[in-house]
Amino acid sequence: MRNTTNILGIPVDNVTLDEAMEKIESFLNQNELRMVFTPNSEIMMAAQRDSELKNILCNADLLVPDGAGVVLASKILGSPLKERVAGFDLTNRLLDHAKQSQIGFFLFGGKPGIADEAAKNLLDENASIKILGIRHGYFTQNEETDIIQEINSSGADVLLVALGAPKQEKWIHKNRKKLNIKVCIGVGGSLDVLAKRVSLAPAFFRNNGLEWLYRLCKEPWRFKRMLDLPRFILLVIAKKMGFFKNL
Q1: pLDDT tops 70 at residue 9
Q2: Is residue 59 domain-resident?
Q3: Cα–chain-centroid distance for residue 139?
Q4: What's the farthest any 2 CA atoms get from each other in the chain?
Q5: Domain assignment present for 68
Q6: Which of 1, 104, 131, 190 is most buried, judged by most C-beta within 10 A?
Q7: Cα 114 to the chain's mean position, in Å?
Q8: Sequence-separated (6 or more) residues with CB below 8 Å from residue 50
Q9: Over the chain, what is the mean pLDDT?
């Protein structure tokens, strides 16, 4: 039985990084597609305005808290999550696990060249890792069928989808019955990091829940989007105080 914490109507899995990996390993031993998403505060807040996204998150097979704000929200609501499980950390752990296994990956998303560079860097680090397919994330609706066929014919077990939220979550959910894949993960900007186009926040910021501040300093254009973080916490506090009982 899943151990989840309800945050504004969305059941977030109360797991550590190790426990999340164990769940994904169990998914890989099954013969049905499993959806894994890693919402941060922005995505959780977006889901309050987008019922389709909220429904998709609620139907994920594994939903881990990628963001200190989501963990803080769980504490405010009195059902604290064990820890933050960052999407990049989960992706990286899965790729490390693949070094000792036969897991095959398909990298899908990012600007042209990003997935290629990510794959090259991964193979440079370990030539035994199985990257069975690569496709950038710029495509038209007419190309979607060909992309799905390319993914299915690759023989990959894991599809890493880097289309950005909420596009990646909606794409995975819409095509879940067409994909011959065991695990689909929405990985956001992880391919950019693996391609070494974007650097991770320094450990101090990551370990103290201040990654948002680092990103804001590096990318000030994200300011309006980041306003969703305080909005999210205020909404959680209002929920705790008894308002918005339908959430």
Answers
A1: yes
A2: yes
A3: 21
A4: 55
A5: yes
A6: 190
A7: 17
A8: 166
A9: 93
Q: Tokens in use for 244?
A: 């918005």
Give the count of domains, the chain.
1
Q: What is the DSSP string of 129-189?
A: SEEEEEE-S---GGGHHHHHHHHHHHT-SEEEEES-TTHHHHHHHHHTTT---SEEEE-TT
In the structure encoding, which two tokens stand for residue 48, read together?
Answer: 């309050």
Is the Cβ–Cβ distance between 19 and 68 less than 8 Å? no
How many CB atoms are located within 10 Å of the residue 226 CB? 17
**What whole-number distance in Å separates Cα of residue 40 and Cα of residue 150?**
30
Tokens 């499980």, located at residue: 85
- Residues of the domain holding 129: 4-240
Count of Cβ atoms closer than 10 Å to residue 245 Cβ: 6
Tell me the pLDDT tens digit for each residue of 18-60. Answer: 999 999 999 999 999 999 999 999 999 999 999 999 999 999 9
Is residue 32 exposed (0-12), middle (13-18) or buried (19+ Cβ within 10 Å)?
exposed
Are β-strands 130-135 and 4-7 bridged in parallel, bridged antiparallel, or unpaired? unpaired
